Amino acid sequence: MHSSLIGKVEKANRYAREIDRISIDRLSLTFRGDNDTHHVTLDAGSWHCTCHYFDSWSVCVHLLTLQKIMGIMLPDDAQVSIFSAPEVAAVS
Question: How many CB atoms lie within 10 A of CB 55?
Fold first, then answer.
């Protein structure tokens, strides 16, 4: 292996451990669920899924799964869902 490539592989391994370097702004994917295949998108912090549950609730298990997998790589507004704990206002 070329010596300059070894350095690139080492750097890529370090970057892979430092996921806070990555910020996902836009995403389009296919999610193979138990009952059907769904298309999920994220654009400007706004999610959309083609599953029927999302149509009614604007959230679904597919989004929750992606939020858990991608975590801090998602923008703050894309990490919020009905599954998140509500924020408690500070008492002054």
Answer: 10
**pTM, 2 dp:** 0.76
Count of H helices and E strands in the chain? 4, 3
pLDDT in tens, 54-80: 999 999 999 999 999 999 999 988 987
3-state secondary structure of 14: helix
CA-closest candidate to residue 42, choices 27, 62, 53, 57? 27
Considering just the CA atoms, what is the radius of gyration of the chain in Å? 18
The dihedrals phi and psi of 10, each to the nearest 5 degrees, come to -60, -40
Please tell me whether residue 59 adopts helix, strand or coil conformation: coil
